[in-house]
Amino acid sequence: MLNTFLELGILLKLGIVVYRALDYNLPTSEDCHISHELEELIDFMTSEGKLEYVVPCVCAFS
């Protein structure tokens, strides 16, 4: 579990970077379309530790 301000700060900034990268160069009239799982992950990353649960990994390994 993330328990330090440094870890939470890094996770927050990484979530913001991921969202901005997905939104990069889109026209202002166009919404960024992302999967529900990715949206939940970004929400978790940018929640600043307010969530009391951990989002399970949605990765698929071959």
How does this structure look, described?
By secondary structure, the chain is an all-alpha fold. About 45% of the residues lie in helices and about 0% in strands. The protein has one domain (about 1-60). It has helices at about 5-25, 35-45. Helix 1 (about 5-25) runs antiparallel to helix 2. The longest helix is centred in the first third of the chain and has 19 residues, at about 5-25.
Write the layout of secondary structure elements.
Layout: H1 5-23, H2 36-45
Helix pairs in contact: 1-2
Short note summarizing the structure:
The chain is 47% helix and 0% strand. It is mostly helical and 62 residues long.
Secondary structure: number of strands = 0
Unreliable spans are 51-62
Secondary-structure-based class equals mainly alpha
Shape: elongated
Mean residue pLDDT: 75
Task: Give the oligomeric state.
Answer: single chain
| Count of discrete alpha- or pi-helical segments spanning 4 or more residues | 2
How many domains in all? Answer: 1
Distance between the termini: 27 Å
Short descriptors:
single chain, 62 residues, mainly alpha, 47% helix, elongated, disordered C terminus, Spire
